[in-house]
Design a protein that fits this description.
This protein is mostly helical. It has two domains: about 210 residues, HUPs (Rossmann fold); about 80 residues, Tyrosyl-Transfer RNA Synthetase. Helices cover about 55% and strands about 5% of the residues. The strands form two sheets. The protein has a three-stranded parallel sheet with strand order 1-2-3. Strand 4, helix 8 and strand 5 form a beta-alpha-beta unit. Helix 4 crosses helix 13, helix 7 packs across helix 8 and helix 10 crosses helix 12. The model has no long low-confidence stretch (mean pLDDT about 95). It binds adenosine-5'-tetraphosphate (AQP). The site of adenosine-5'-tetraphosphate has 22 residues, from helix 1.
């Protein structure tokens, strides 16, 4: 069976972007013809400063978000990265396979480091190499992600190819495919349609958090930036209107509709009609999830227990692959 791997950083509260671009699609792939492995990638979160107590909370909250959205820990392997040390071990080997020039081309690093590239952590720079390890440690073949992660999955393929070629280990690491599908592969910031919605964006008004209450969701959509024109009668009319397009994409993804169907329903309507409909839909979809997240968060020990179980199952797959990798590289592990 083909194997799916994907992860989410506990670098803050989950956003609607994480939900539509990633989690909702993780749920869709579960129980189909895939073995699904989903990870709270805490080692990635610490590439930028995280308060230790908040990191523990966010790690459990992302796990709760997965489960509340429909990831079933008995169907999927669900765990946090730090509890499977094989990730960091393979990550080091890949640091020695990947080239500095490859990292220099990563646009997410450029965006995140900005003008401050000398002052960010070395981990932030090497992050895509650890991400390659996350995926290849399980010989995963399918990686559902948002658009922003496409380049990193492509780099994972480059690392796999170079490793296989350098060590004459033909096909040892498989070529993985990014799975980037649906109308919401890149949910944009509500205040600026040229920027992606992020957990760590400056203002809370830029994003919808999965735990926002109904009033907050309504307020954020009401204040979302738009142009004054009504919704167009056809999809072409959205091409130069990034904010309008974003809200249509969000509606389509939440309702499991195509953008065409949304335009067929709302074309010609003003924002005064569309925004409240969008807010109602978002509340309808997110409220049950956030209620369930809160319920799960009342019992952190139970979340830890589920993560521990998941990490045991993850290790069973990871350890033999890591062991073989050490052997291929020529690293001795007597005993
Ligand atoms: N705005 C988005 N639209 C669609 N998909 C998104 N993803 C993130 N933002 C959007 C997808 O969510 C998954 C997990 O991402 P991540 O937590 O590993 O890191 P990220 O992409 O850096 O997410 P954030 O929310 O922007 O976090 P911060 O602010 O901490 O960096 C990925 O599949 C991603 O594509």
């Amino acid at each position: 069976t083909p194997r799916v791997f994907s992860g989410i950083k506990p670098s803050g509260g989950l956003t609607l972007g994480n939900y539509l671009g990633a989690i909702k699609r993780f749920v869709d792939m579960q129980g189909q013809d895939y073995e699904t492995i989903y990870c709270v990638v805490d080692l990635h979160a610490i590439t930028v400063w995280q308060d230790p107590a908040e990191l523990k909370h966010a790690t459990r909250e992302v796990a709760a978000g997965f489960i509340a959205s429909g990831i079933d820990p008995s169907k999927s392997i669900l765990f946090n990265q730090a509890s499977v040390p094989q990730h960091a071990e393979l990550g080091w080997i890949f640091n020695c396979v990947a080239r500095v020039g490859w990292m220099n081309r990563m646009t997410q690093f450029k965006d995140k480091a900005g003008k401050n590239a000398e002052k960010v952590s070395l981990g932030l720079y090497a992050y895509p190499s650890l991400m390659a390890a996350d995926i290849l440690l399980y010989h995963a073949t399918h990686v559902p992600v948002g658009e922003d992660q496409k380049q990193h999955v492509e780099l994972t393929r480059d690392i796999a190819s170079k490793f296989n070629k350098d060590f004459k280990a033909e096909d040892f690491f498989p070529m993985c495919e990014p799975i980037i599908e649906g109308p919401a592969t890149r949910v944009m910031n509500l205040r600026d349609g040229s920027k992606k919605m992020s957990k760590s964006g400056e203002s809370d008004m830029e994003r919808i958090n999965m735990t926002d209450d109904a009033d907050t969701i309504a307020k954020k959509f009401k204040k979302a930036k738009t142009d004054p024109e009504p919704l167009p009668e056809s999809l072409d009319g959205l091409s130069e209107r990034p904010e309008a397009r974003n809200l249509v994409n969000i509606y389509a993804a939440l309702a499991d509709m195509t953008n065409e169907a949304v335009i067929a329903e709302f074309g010609g309507e003003g924002w005064g009609k569309f925004k409240p409909a969008l807010a109602d839909l978002a509340v309808e979809k997110l409220a049950p999830i956030s209620t369930e997240m809160k319920r799960l968060m009342d019992d952190p020990a139970e979340i830890d227990r589920l993560l521990l179980k998941g990490s045991d199952r993850a290790k069973e797959i990871a350890e033999p692959i890591l062991q073989k990798t050490y052997d291929i590289v020529g690293l001795l592990r007597p005993g």
